[in-house]
Design a protein that fits this description.
By secondary structure, this protein is an all-alpha fold. It has 21 helices and no strands.
Length: about 525
Amino acid sequence: MARDQLQVLNALDVAKTQLYHFTTIVIAGMGFFTDAYDLFSISLVAKLLGRLYYTKPGAPKPGVLPPSISSSVTGVALVGTLIGQLFFGWLGDKMGRKKVYGLTLIIMIICAVASGFSFGHTPKGVMASLCFFRFWLGFGIGGDYPLSATIMAEYANKKTRGAFIAAVFAMQGMGILFSGIISLVVSTAFDRKYPTPTYEQNPGLSTPPEADYVWRIVLMFGALPAALTFYWRMKMPETARYTALIAKNAKQAAADMGRVLNVDLEAEEEKVEKISKGKSNNFGLFSREFLRRHGLHLFGTTSTWFLLDIAFYSQNLFQKDVLSAIGWIPPAKTMNGIHEVFRIAKAQTLIALCSTVPGYWFTVAFIDIMGRFAIQLMGFFFMTVFMFAVAIPYDHWKTHHLGFVMMYALTFFFANFGPNATTFVVPAEIFPARLRSTCHGISAAAGKAGAIIGAYGFLYAAQNQDKAKTDAGYPPGIGIKNALIILGCINALGMICTFAVPESKGKSLEEASQETFGDDDDEPEGV
């Protein structure tokens, strides 16, 4: 039988949308804004790092980061994020969402600033210290995934909960956009202050010593939005679901939410005690009962996020083809070092405006109308269609640039108006409160494992089969066309795995996670 809902939790579920909802979106969302800024800003300055530290005198082209260094500088943060998602997800269920939330932000602020102070007497020394700080930056970022989603889910009402969680995640798009804008501003200022010839005209003068400040300023700026939210994160009360259902402090939960909602709430200590003793509220993550109730759900959330991120992070495979085809990024030797940062940042900003950001906000608008399942299934379907549309006639698109760009934009529009958002939302809704942050962290870590494969495994796999035509330092691969066909198949597999994910639209968290069911209720819900 279904248990009676606690008054404090019911009050949150039926509350009208009000100021505290938007305050929570901003506080949690600015964390994601910072996360995206820090993770994506490195791609804007990677070319400059190559020019500064790996240009060889007399070379016909400016220096680039060697494959191993490039993979380390950009990938080490993803590894740190994966570990942080698992660790802080678990810690959020043990210590409380609020306590851990502040810790992750401190780590992000310190490491974002430290990244800009990366030191060393040799190029390897600078890159090693940069990798060290970016690993720990990723570690802090990883904690923000399960904690932001869980906090927003536990504060939201059930009618618009999906939109609120998706709005938090949508701030990732704004962070990507902001990283481009900051890079544009900084590179423009330095290019005007220190005008230099192109690499073709004068290789030695094309990258002035002052350019070393450009990448440092861009990376350090990621600490600012995080620092601005720290005070408000510390002022937020712990979520009622953690306080009542995990800490078992009914009086504190009622007092905290009473202040938030401006209503008087009964503590209901006896009901909390009764709920905590029930068999269905005491099984662990590695128990048979969890496997029976949520094993299929955890498989669904981990597999879909894993498969989605392989495809999503592999966009680097053909981003350079898109940008070069439409003339947004000319050959490196025709630019100086600082102007190259400007051109790359301009391209990323335009992509964010036209494709990335709109997709996120379409999800916010429609997730509580269409439901999580429908949006995720639709997103994977169209990603599959457009990925195959790019891959199969790949040689045709080399001479039809407009169609190529449209296919590219639509693929990632439907990633964001689709599984990139829903894989973040659903794990925060369908698992019990005492395991919610942990299971979200596991799901997110599976996604980051996919991101590492997509960003780096496929970068090697997509190299030309002819050794003479591979990028500098890379071995021959299977070719970009074959790599894209494989990615289309991965998207199709994600569509199939979506059927293991239950629909949580319009349900309370306790209904969606089956915490309202008595010990005799059976069979987990699925789609």
